[in-house]
Amino acid sequence: MRGLLGLARRQATAHRAVPVALALLVLLVAGVVTAWPRLLAGVDDRQVTHEIAATSPLSRDVVGVLPTEWPRLDPPPPGSTPYPPEVEENVGGVHVALEELRAAQPEPLRTLLGEPSFSLQSQPAEIAPPPDPVIGRQWLHLSVDPQLADRVTLTDGRWPEVPAPVDPFAGLTDAERMTLSLDEEAALVDAAIAASGPLELVLSAPAAEVLEWEVGTERRFAGNTVPALLTGTYEVDDPGADYWDHNLYSVEPHVVDDLNIGTSATAAAYLDPAWDGRLPPGFPVHVASFRTQMWFPVAVGALTADDVDAAAAQLVRFTTPQPLGEAGELGPAPEVRFASGLGEVLDRVQQQQAVTSTVLTVIAAGPLGVTLAVLLLAARLLVARRRPGLALLSARGGSGWQLRAMLALEGFVLGVPAAAAGALLAVLVLPGRTAPADLAVTGAVAVVPAVMLAASTSPRGLREGRADLGGRSGRWRWVAEVVLLALTAVAVVLLVQRGVVPGTGETDVLLTGVPLLLSAATCVVVLRVYPLPVRALAGVLRRRRGLTSFLGSARAVRDPSGGLVPAVALVIGVSVAMFSAVLGSTIGTGVQATAWQSVGADLRLSGPIIDEDQAAAIAGVQGVAEVATIGDAGTVSVSGERLDLAVADLAAVRDVQADGVGIDRLPADLPTAAGDAVPAVLSAEAVEALGAGVGDTLQAAVGDGVTLEVVGTVERLAGAGTTGDVVVDAAAFTAATERTVLPRIALVDVADGEDPTAVLERVREVEPVALAQNPAGDASGFLSSPMAGGMNAALTVAVVLSLALVVVAVVMTQLVGAPARARLLAVLRTLGLDRRGARGIVAWELVPLAVVSVLAGGLLGVLVPWVVLGRMDLRALTGGEEQPGLVVDPLVVGGVLGGILLVTALAVLVSTVVSSRADVASELRMGEET
């Protein structure tokens, strides 16, 4: 036994380059499989933050409203709020109730909900303007906010004091009040108003300037004699803070210039937060109705990707009606229902995570398969180098399990430290988090060398033999291959019949399993098919003069270097690169199509009215080829269906959108409508709702009614925004209805050769107010998201890793057959074979298999996207509402395939040159000794 161990130790120290290479390979793979989930977790976390941050505060924050009542809650214990005692006595109960409600929520919702805020605001009350005002009608929302003083700076005057309204009928019984005349009652009210004093308030400095109201002066509310005193003005410390989105008209007033009612302005006027809601006598009843708005600001970076599912479910439960606090001396607790648009954001994030998880699982499966093939090659290479010693051990009585145990131990010694070092390196270099389940894959990588070394070792395999002489396993191999092909066909049929299924967050076994089955089936077909043309070629070369081609082709059939393993590595490695290219083209084109569907032209302007003069001014800008405007005629009844009606110059819109990417353009040959009918183009939704088609007439309830004739259909008019169910010709519509629809959308076609960004800057000089969009900007904005960046990074890593492993596989394949090849070349060199002939024989061992495998991998790289991506909901990756079509860009695919062929050819060339250098003397001497 001691001799056996000593021989095993000497075996382990021999041929050190091979075990070192195996250890480095394990270190690399372990580092990648450890870093991969950390990278994806970080991308998912950043995407959650990105999606939440991109939503407006009014949409994402959790908001509740008490619409018609002052919040009557019992005062909390003194000192339980950050407010002064008098404010705490008044509204502190609301603050405490909101804090208790937040504290009662489970994680992660509790952390997601920020510190609660609330404010009270009345219905608008009209205030009398000064003489000769700039703003004719002025409105105030009386507001109470206990946090106002902490968020603004008083710039003039002082803070208001609490009103002290006097009851005009104090001391009178109901019977005595009933006997009062109208004049007596009015006199008592006037006296109470005078005794109560003015209602003190503060305004923002911009609001006071717009309302022309000086600090220290009084104004009267319209319709009564109640005075209001402006005691001070303030400036907001941070006007861009999300807080002010919930406090309307607080930063600056809202000014409206209406041609019908004139100019008006609305501002928020703040009273002392200790005010209990009692208004002076004679104040308008409708103004005395206050709405209490409460909100929890969402902490944008609080959620990780792992928290999304739980947070979404908890948010649904939180938005059901629930009491605000507990019943007390002031009565039962009011019931409030919170609402938030955050649920839609979390649903979208869940869809994104489901799709990206599935896509990245498919992508990761490719390099994983190549890795296993390369590790198996490395194990076979190590066993080949150990074969003489193992054969000697076997001859001296070593059993099969002893030989396997010895190599398995060596595999553990090589794999476990290397895997641990790779995992540690990944953790140190890449920030993120690693779940225990993720380390299970790293642990599996650590034991792979031991398993493969043991599996590659058997006493029968230690003897030299002919690879082309079949054994008893040939029948079972045929059975296994037929079963695999049948299973692949069934899985593909099931996936195609199932169609597109939205992501659910669960691992889709069928969707992720089909690419693996297709890869395995392709490898089987390659190994069965490729010997046929090579054997036929060998027969042709057999009748010709020359040794190199005939012997090389014969060895390619009789003794293919590496067999199945290099075929797997090449086929899967090439298919991963091709799949990544097709996926990238599909997503990129889908994002562009989504941007074009939203924008509708090279540039899109929206917002203010764009009349004919304004459109002409835009058309005159340098670099603008044409302008088409779209007007919104509102929602009207069309043959009994409520549809959005858009008015546009159909020919101009068609010309502007001629170069659109991925959009359904207006037909080029729109027919004219018969008689006085107005030409109309229907969207797909309108066609389905009306059951109408080209040539049909419809009745639209506009004015006295107008007849529409359908002259074309589109999926959806790009750039029309929320309108566009029915698009009618502007000139014909105006003639039929005597009504002009002023457009608010302009689609701008940029002249060929002009830079859209530069043209946009020139257009802004003509129309600085309108919201400007361009497809390139929208697309680049979406592609700059963490999800898109992470997807590109993952695709790049997968392609680079696969190609690197392909090169390693080619080199190792040549090294596996190096001993037998070296003996053959040594004999042939003594018979006169030159180095060029030797390189030709070596190249024949791998070139046929490499060429067939690369071509098969290229076809597989196009087939897998067609099968998989066509049945996967990719809308989350493009940001659109339509499923993107599969895009196979010939330039991209050709470039990737050419690069793969070049890399493979260089690998074959280098390994061929190295493998053809055999030491004739040493090989012949070893042959004599054996």
UniProtKB/TrEMBL annotation:
Compartments where found: Cell membrane
ABC3 transporter permease C-terminal domain: residues covered: 797-914
Membrane topology: Multi-pass membrane protein
Keywords: Cell membrane, Membrane, Transmembrane, Transmembrane helix
Segments crossing the lipid bilayer: 359-384, 405-429, 435-455, 476-496, 516-541, 562-583, 793-820, 841-868, 891-916
Major site of localization recorded for this protein: membrane
Keyword Hydrolase: no
InterPro entries attached to this UniProt entry: ABC3_permease_C, Lipoprotein-release_system
Family: Belongs to the ABC-4 integral membrane protein family. LolC/E subfamily.
UniProt xrefs under PANTHER family: LIPOPROTEIN-RELEASING SYSTEM TRANSMEMBRANE PROTEIN LOLE
Protein name, entry field: ABC transporter permease
